[in-house]
Amino acid sequence: MKTRPRYRRVLLKLTGESLQGGAEGGIDWSAAQRVARELRDVARLGVQLAIVIGGGNFWRGRTAQNTGMDRITADQIGMIATVMNGLALRDALEETGVPTRVMTALEIPRFAETFQRDRAVRHLEAGSVVIFAGGTSNPLFTTDTAAALRAAEIRADVLLKASTVDGVYDSDPRKNPKAKRYARLRFSEAIARDLKVMDTAAFSLCKDSGVRIILFDSRRAGNIKQAVLGRGIGTLVTE
Fold first, then answer.
1. How far is CA 39 from CA 6, 128, 159, 194, 226, in A?
2. Each residue of 173-195: pLDDT tens digit?
3. Fewest CB within 10 angstroms: 1, 42, 172, 228, which?
4. Which domains does the chain have, with CATH numbers?
């Protein structure tokens, strides 16, 4: 069985809810440790691993906007939530023996390094996992878009989008038991069909920069490693 990684440099997009576990919100430390162990197994393959993490376990900007809050303020709070998750995930990873850096688009040097592309690449080449937090530092952009941007900037071979479904379907598999899962899609098809599994801006960024995307179910233990090994899980989106 193939045990050598298919990709050399990987950008993994994780949801904030992956750290939530069974809690109603915030961080369940046992869930964070479980995620960290999976990431440790990936790092041990010798790949250069970068991570963009969301903040949905603490805050959802669009939900807050629907209650009347200003969208810009709501998004700014969401960016801070991603930094909180990044710091927690760093501690969980370092507990497993994996050297980890948190770099943030927000300038908070007492807590994390400010993102700088060349420095991030040096950290990766030195063997550290790098967690990118703070989104793009701009409101109105999702963490999907932030993940695509960082993947392009560090010249990642692939963007792994961890999800709660096992790929992209032609209809909602939770409503249609006969929904068809795509093993492979072209960027042009994903954009034309306005698939809701990822932002159109993120698809376009990856298309323009030549970064392929794998959308897969991260709830199944070991799936992150399987994706890095190129074992055909989920849906591959490429040119």
1. 16, 12, 15, 31, 12
2. 889 989 999 999 999 999 998 88
3. 1
4. 9-238 (3.40.1160.10)
